[in-house]
Amino acid sequence: MKFFKIIAIALTIIIAIIFIKFKPAYAVSLNGEQLGYVGDEDEFQEEINENILSTDEENIAFVELDDVDYSMSLVSRDQVDEETVLAKLEDSAKNVYRVYEVADLNNEEDKIYVNSMEEAESLVASLKETYSELEPNLVINTIYLENVDEVNEENIQIAKNKMAEDLQTQLEEKEEKDSRTVNGIYLACVPVTGRISSRFGANESIRDHTHKGLDIAASGGTPIKAVADGTVIRSGWSSGYGNLVVIDHGNGVTTYYGHCSRLYVSKGTSVKAGDNIAAVGSTGNSTGNHLHFEIRLNGEQVNPQKYVYK
Length: 310
Fold this sequence. Notes:
With about 300 residues, this protein is α+β, with helices and mostly antiparallel strands. The chain has five helices and 20 strands.
């Protein structure tokens, strides 16, 4: 019995010594790296939530921290250092910022990042008002970034200037295209490059009526191009026109190409803007090599210089 009493006393002393020097604790690890020890898992997790994951800083959407792992251990009391572990976790945490992107869907390169929805909405309203004729396709997207160093006043202004310049270019291109459009048909090119020798509405001795087209002087054999997509509805000889090509572009719009020396297309041919359809000549009622060019809308001649050769 004495032996067992001695063993019991010895065990009690050993256990007391262990609990004096050591204590149950939790080893804290992040991505497989042990950071240190803390006393209570639940209490320490609350510290993480309050001091790292919660923030009132403007524009921070959330704080990103990889999963923290806990494992029960028995360690020396002086190894438990919650402040050091918390500091290491704080260094590993990443702030994720919420910013607002104003984007032009017609130009993927044009993006402006601002700090608030109000600022984004105001910017979109201003741009849409300024470029109302263009009806810009602007959208606002919520974007999350880890680095917001570029979202500063200087870079915001640079992005605003670039978008404004690009929208202005789009507007000018639209106005140019609109000015070359007849009843919805875009005249993509001129039929031939040359000197205008007779304008629409001119009175000349060669004819007994005002000129119903535009004469463009050019060397014989110069290629003549279709000004827009369409279908050839006439190709052949036509009295005063000489060799003539007529193209139907739809929407009541037709174009006439007269006095040609050669015809490259036949009736029923589908053509694209810029296709060679004939060659400049002096056939029919003509005093020299030139193209007689007409635009007709629902059968009525209109002045080609409203749309080309301005």
